[in-house]
Amino acid sequence: MGIAIEGVTDGSIPHVLMVSFAGQGHLNPLLRFAKRIAAKGLLVTLCSTDDIGYRISSSTGDSALGVPKPVGRGFIRFEFFSDGLPVDDPGRKDLDVLMPAIGSTGPPALVDLIRRQADAGFPVSCIVNNPFLPWALDVAADMGIPGGVLWIQSCAVFTTYYSYYHSLAEFPTEDNPDVTVNLPGLPPMKPEELPTFLLPSSRFKSARKVILEQFGNVSKASWVFANSFEKLERETIDAISHRLQVIPVGPLVEPDDKSQSSIRGDLFKVADCMYWLDAQAPSSVVYVSVGSVVVLSEEEMSELAWGLRKCSRPFLWVVRRDTQALLPEGFIEEAGDRGLVVEWSPQDLVLAHPAVACFVTHCGWNSTLEALTAGVPVVTYPQWGDQVPDSKFLVEVYGVGVRLRAPATRDEVERCVEAVTQGEGAEAIKARAAEWKEAAARAVEEGGSSDRHIQSFVDEIKKRASCSGDIAAV
Ligand code: UDP
């Protein structure tokens, strides 16, 4: 497919290709990174698999994803490639099905896609991929194109996996399951505070394998970016940087005023809940979401529902279509005007709304950063993977919330919501949340720590592109 770029008048633009794994938690930070880079004057093509193209088009109504859209001084467009499975194959939810399929189809498809960019007059100057697709770095290296990686979880979790992969510390084993892990730049981590995939008892062996594979070839990356910021994880970043330089470029959170762009990568159709929020009192609403993957049990859904009903506050609850049947019968009718249940929300906008008082979250890293950036107190309800350490950091290190222990009960839901919204303890939590909001804004503003890192990367790409003659004549 040819690329036409209307409005490019200076006759040249360096081109960065970003490759995302098919998941909302992967796509959002990479797209936000793409916007910040594009805004500084580059063309960014964000590519992922065909099913993702289909889902973004269906949910956003944008059928021209391949057409470059202006973002600041640059442009963004999408491209898609096959993961080897039919677009509507439900089998791709299973990593044991998806990973071998994409592992064999993805690399040649990516090579082909890169060649087509050059043929169209826009050779790729750099490739950036996110976790679960380590082969993208191999493709970049084989084609002589510099490669980077965007780590989409915390630097604390990066350090933990990296140290496990390279056997740099003692971790729990079947014979010795109670080991506390001590890593430089991190507080001691008890087994129940580690990413659960590393526990010998974890049932998700495929997830562990897929995550750890990243660390096999990360040394091929010219840049390892992280969705974090210096003030948030300075000690951890400094400690790991003795082995590998990690460049914090976050929080990659919207709304981002600088990019002035409405391009979104929602995989679910976003419900209009802003009108409802506008009608609520300031700092009154409990917002609840467990992200794009977590499925709570019927019992937990029921306790959460009646717990929300017990809190004398309005609530906005994201219950994805695949989990709506788990809601207690009659709950939505019973909640009436006081509660709004939607299949998907514009979460970044919701958290930034003044009506929101607190966020009951599963602690995915994007949700964690979005809460910190918005200065919203949290009730944490982690399920697995990095959500568990993220919850620890939110509560014990960043001091912006309390943990709801699993399995949730309605009384505990009510108690936790009260703990972060009312009384002296809540005031201290709100004050810390406001400080993190300020720190996050400082990091991404012009000249802030993350903005400087992004600017250096863009300058380097522009320099390399002009030296190698990669810049296209339009
Ligand atoms: N999200 C959203 N609307 C919702 C729920 C989630 O836009 O109703 C977004 C959220 O803002 C975040 C992403 O989906 O950027 C979820 O990523 P996260 O890392 O928090 O969790 P995951 O879905 O990967 O478990």
Automatic annotation (TrEMBL):
Keywords: Glycosyltransferase, Transferase. It comes from the Eukaryota. One of its GO terms (molecular function) is quercetin 7-O-glucosyltransferase activity. Its EC number is 2.4.1.-. InterPro entries: UDP_glucos_trans (IPR002213), UDP_glycos_trans_CS (IPR035595). The keyword Transferase applies. Pfam families: UDPGT. The keyword Transferase applies. Belongs to the UDP-glycosyltransferase family. This is Glycosyltransferase. It comes from Musa troglodytarum.
